[in-house]
Amino acid sequence: MLEIEMRMLTAFHPQMDGQTERMNQEFVVNNKVHSATKVSHFMANYGRELQMGTDIRRKGKVKKATEFVKRMRRVQEEAGATLRKAQKEMKRQVDRERREVEE
Hints:
- By secondary structure, the chain is an all-alpha fold.
- 57% of the residues lie in helices and 0% in strands.
- The radius of gyration is 27 Å and the shape is elongated.
């Protein structure tokens, strides 16, 4: 349907773009347990393990995203209404000063 062509990629055989390879390298470095500290760099810096991807089954994040979208729509609707009101007022002010032109 979308005609998407999949290409397999590993960290040791980069056959995609350099950005993907760089992200893979960063993930490996940040997720590897350091021999001296016995924790990953990410855990040492942020106090939690680095997660790969997200679980789309988690309803909490979807609910938050839905709430965000609703809030943004409401803000945009209110801003649009305010702009339309300002536009009408500006037109009214300009129209007061206009005179008809005879042809």
